[in-house]
Structure formats: C-alpha cells, structure tokens
Amino acid sequence: MRRHSPIIAAILLVAVILLGLAVGAGWTQTADWQVSHALAIRVDQSDPALISFMQWVSWVGGGTPRWVIVVLLCGLVWHWCGPRCAVALGGASLLGNLASSLLKRGFGVERPDLIPHLDHQTSFSYPSGHATSAAVVYLLLASLALRRWRIAAWALAATMILLNAASRIMLGVHWASDIAGGTLLGAAFALLGAWWAGLRARQAAPNG
Fold first, then answer.
1. Where exactly are the structural domains of the chain?
2. Contact 208/158 with Cβ under 8 angstroms?
3. Contact 182, 125 (CB under 8 A)
4. pLDDT digits (tens, 9 = 90+) for 118-132
C-alpha cells in the first residue's frame, strides 16, 4: 500500500482540482446549499453554547493554535519513531497549508452568505484550510502512531476531521464542497508524508 502512496496522492490532488472546477462551474451549488441549510441556518438560531463550542473547535484548528499543536505532535512522533517522522509531519503540514492557500487564490471561491459569519475570515473559500490541516495532521499522526496507540490515533483523526468540518459549515464560513476539497488535499499530503517517512526508514535500515 505505502509504495503506491505517491500515485494515490496524485489522484487525490487531481480530484481536488476537478472538484474546484466543478465548484467554479456551479455544479455543487444545490448540494452545498442543502448541507448549509441543514447545519448553518439551524445553528444560527440554536443554543449559544453550541455556537461557542464550534467557535472553539474552529479556533483550535486554525492560526497559531494549529501550529502549536503541530509542533507538539512533531515532538511526540519524534519520540515514537525518530526525527524523520517529525520532519514528515511538520513538512506535510506546511506544504498542505501552502497548497491550500495557493488553491484558494487560484479558484477564488467566495464564502457562503447564508448567515452572518460566526468566525472571522479574510481569504477565499475553496479548499478549506481547516479541513486540509485536520486531515494532513491527524491522518499522518495516526499512520505514524505506535501499534498500541493506533486505534486511539485513528479515533482522534476521525473526531478532529469531523468536528472541524461541522464547525466550519455551522459557523457559515464554508460550503460542504470546500470541506471535501480540503479533506482530499490533506489526505494527499498525509499519504506523501507517510510514504516519505517509510522511504527514509527503509533507506536507513541495514542491508540484508
């Protein structure tokens, strides 16, 4: 599986671009509106405690808190499997974030306007940087985890990816297609990071 990771990552990157073109052409508009209507409009009129929780999830998943978490997790995977794993996690996170920013500029998709934004935003919408970061960081963390921690790591990955997705839509700052594109993008860089860490491990192993 891991030897095919670059090919799978390339397919995911193509999927991100194709989805972005579909978004730009308006083909995802109906589905996006239906998801946002079900989540964002309802949360705008719901319990303030839920809104505060989703704002906290969004805060943790972006900006300075995100990079503090990445640094701490790099230290953790360094302890697990050495510096190559820490470099893989940090490098994939940085490259994924850069790719997300560049694609945002390239596609220029406007943010949803169904409700007043419940989180501050200054950039375009597709793909979601929060979704990209959650996918690359936590999927790669799970793939690098020690065997005894692997189930917990995959559970954490699923939880963080879903919470970030829900928070961005509920706060009215992303369409579902933005989340899908960001998750695919993050998964691509997670695969590349895991492949690179495994490749370096094989090269460092004694022959025979």
1. 2-201
2. no
3. no
4. 777 778 999 999 999
80 vs 201: CA distance, rounded Å: 13
Using alpha carbons only, give the angle 181, 6, 60 rounded to the nearest 5 degrees: 40
- Amino acid in position 79: H
Within 8 A by CB and 6+ apart from 167, the residues are 54, 55, 57, 58, 61, 130
Question: Per residue in 47-59, pLDDT tens?
Answer: 788 888 888 999 9
Is the torsion defined by CA of 56, 183, 6, 4 positive or negative?
positive
Question: What pTM does this model have?
Answer: 0.90
